[in-house]
Amino acid sequence: MQAKSLKPYAEPLDEIAQEAVARMKSIRNENNMIENNLLDEFMSYVLEFTGIIALGRRFYAFDPNLREGSLTPILLRNVQDFFALSDKLDFQPNLWRYYPNKTFRTAMKFLEEAEKLNVKLLRTAMEELKKNPKPEEKKGVLEKLAEINEDVALAFADDMFFVGVDTLANGMISVLYLLANNPDKQTKLREELMSKESRRPYLRACIKEAARMRPVAFGNLRLTTTEYNIFGYEIPKDTMVLFCHEHMSLREDQYPQPNQFIPERWLVDKNHPLYHGNAHPAAAVHFGYGARGCVGRKAADMEMEILISRVIENFRLEWRGKPMAVYQSVSNHNMAPYNFIFNDV
């Protein structure tokens, strides 16, 4: 996905981010904390982003007047069920590989129903686009993909909903958590945002540093298609190889002071001891790379930057209590309680 294809979404995504901030202000308690499940909250924000990019429509996921029977809670539940079932099938002892037990049958039924819903949403979106065609320069991702192949457009929408919503919501919470625990970095970021400069290098550096320290994807798994000899290690064909970025990106020999949140490492020149380019190129490639890289990376970066910007512009974040734990499954999940304090700036 090219960055220029995302330009038409900048304004509607920013409108959603501002609505999300207003929602956060309205649901704070007397201590400026949000008692709702913060991950669910952020998933609803990301669902709105995803609806705009993948389908060209809003779901109004955090509308207090949401009608009963709306698609929104169904879509959010589908995402949650997808990860819960994946955890049971892939990370817990299970016999489904030998015979289709109840867990496997439940998963297949769920995926079938979820796929039907996604197809229905995509078909509706495509019909709307045909009725109201846009000029070439205003066409978004969905239109351009569908013109090439509708099956590809559906696969893209599936990935955005099933994989993108949960992971991006967790990634956003990680960035805010590290900023809340590093008030000097938070202040520096806010100063950059308030300057209204179009370039925001420190914002991007904060996001990269959070991905290094608390990656959503702990690694990338690949199947070798030929034999390899890497530094004397013989790797046969058809071997599963795990690139464990979570471990590599926290090694002292790759990133000095690895447990410190230092966004500046992504901005200093190559003569500085913290320069990120001194690390191995594969030490922190959490989106993958090459032909198998994450197709939604540009969209995820854009969504992250827009929402984080609006949150930091409006709130001075603090963290109260114990460090936020992480549960490792198909991806890394930030665990409740989410003890953020959202003070007005």
Automatic annotation (TrEMBL):
<dbReference type="GO" id="GO:0004497">
    <property type="term" value="F:monooxygenase activity"/>
</dbReference>
<dbReference type="GO" id="GO:0005506">
    <property type="term" value="F:iron ion binding"/>
</dbReference>
<keyword id="KW-0560">Oxidoreductase</keyword>
<dbReference type="GO" id="GO:0016705">
    <property type="term" value="F:oxidoreductase activity, acting on paired donors, with incorporation or reduction of molecular oxygen"/>
</dbReference>
<dbReference type="InterPro" id="IPR050479">
    <property type="entry name" value="CYP11_CYP27_families"/>
</dbReference>
<dbReference type="InterPro" id="IPR017972">
    <property type="entry name" value="Cyt_P450_CS"/>
</dbReference>
<keyword id="KW-0408">Iron</keyword>
<dbReference type="GO" id="GO:0020037">
    <property type="term" value="F:heme binding"/>
</dbReference>
<dbReference type="InterPro" id="IPR036396">
    <property type="entry name" value="Cyt_P450_sf"/>
</dbReference>
<dbReference type="InterPro" id="IPR002401">
    <property type="entry name" value="Cyt_P450_E_grp-I"/>
</dbReference>
<dbReference type="Pfam" id="PF00067">
    <property type="entry name" value="p450"/>
</dbReference>
<keyword id="KW-0503">Monooxygenase</keyword>
<feature type="binding site" description="axial binding residue">
    <location>
        <position position="294"/>
    </location>
    <ligand>
        <name>heme</name>
    </ligand>
</feature>
<protein>
    <submittedName>
        <fullName>Cytochrome P450 CYP12A2</fullName>
    </submittedName>
</protein>
<comment type="similarity">
    <text>Belongs to the cytochrome P450 family.</text>
</comment>
<dbReference type="InterPro" id="IPR001128">
    <property type="entry name" value="Cyt_P450"/>
</dbReference>
<keyword id="KW-0479">Metal-binding</keyword>
<keyword id="KW-0349">Heme</keyword>
